Amino acid sequence: MRLTAIASMLIAVLFITAAAGTAVAQVNLEKLTKPALLNETAPDKYQVKFDTSKGEFTVEVTREWAPLGADRFYNLVKNGFYDNCKFFRVIEGFMVQFGINGNPKISAALSSAFIKDDPVKKSNTRGYITYAMAGPDTRTTQVFINYGDNSRLDKDKFSPFGKVTKGMNVVESLYGGYRGTPSDSQQQIKMQGNAFLEKNFPNLDFVKTATIIPAETK
């Protein structure tokens, strides 16, 4: 009897979520370990709701700003890539960076799944989200949200593809006590996953879930 009641509650939760129009991501290991399958074209506009250890924030993506970046982000979110990702580089006044998966198998599969650069159409100012990269045409999964005016990055082809529209106060409250130190150990993070970060940097905030929601109409 008790199991039946629990099952009914779970069905109700799923129904309510579907009715609200939220696309709940489930980690799709097959697609995330076979990057060629991450090939859907994103909508012209879409929103992503991030539920984090500090609260929620929403990013609105405009595909026209950076089509290749918007498509990759859409596929990653839709297949659960950012769930449980840590905010491993948080520098006050500059930016917060995330996007190394907690599962080393997924990180290994995507580490060389590069996408070409998009022309820079928007500037790296407060609230805009952009891919991190190590040079031309090296974008993969890591992104950062600008805390301030970082327009100096525009000339280096850092092309924003979206903007935080709700919850910027949450973004700015993410734990920054380690500053950029965890980022110096990216190879260890990729090889050991969240286990490395939880052992060495236990206070890092993280994404609980990232889900695609319909863009608001104006």
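Next protein, fold it too.
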Amino acid sequence: MRTSSLALMAVLFASPVSAAILYSNAPDLGPSQVGNCVYNTTCGSIYAAQKFNLSTSSNLTGIGINTIIPNGGPATGANWLITDAGGMGGLPGAILGSGAGSNFTVSAGPVGALFSTTDYVFDISSLLLPAGDYYVAVRAVTTNIADYLSKGVATSGAASSNDGGLTWTAGPLFFGTFGSFALSVFGETATDVPEPASMALLAAGLLGLGIARKRA
């Protein structure tokens, strides 16, 4: 009877997950390659955000950005936000997750027609979100002249904030007027998660199996 109990638990509690790139807006590496200084502290303490969509409930574990470095080395620290898209006009709204510091990895990115690039991958540990539209926003924290956030191949979705995320403007601030920032979102998509009714059925079934085992 014990083997049957464990088998039943394995079936109902199975939550297959697939580590994946949940969203990717690749950098534009062609002759129109450009960056924007919203991620460069010489332009002020400004958040640059990019909209993304989750088609199913997902557990976010990381975000990636791509930058151009025309004037110096990579940022030594950064802040990030994840918001919903409930702001005015579909701009960033409520903050759902945030982080700060140097909890990211930096590596050489692809070489474009005009500039070499750098990839940052931020570890955000875990953030479970339902299907829907969201934004990732990043802001460099550095003492040197840092890198510029790369233009993405998508034509829309960029937003900027120069007051710490209180208000937002569509598109990049300052020079480099383009539609999107290069961004990737990493995580797992969960399926077959037991519904509350299934959990109750499981509990009743295990209780019955336990009683039967005692009687046997």
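About the second fold: Residues 1-16+194-216 form one domain.
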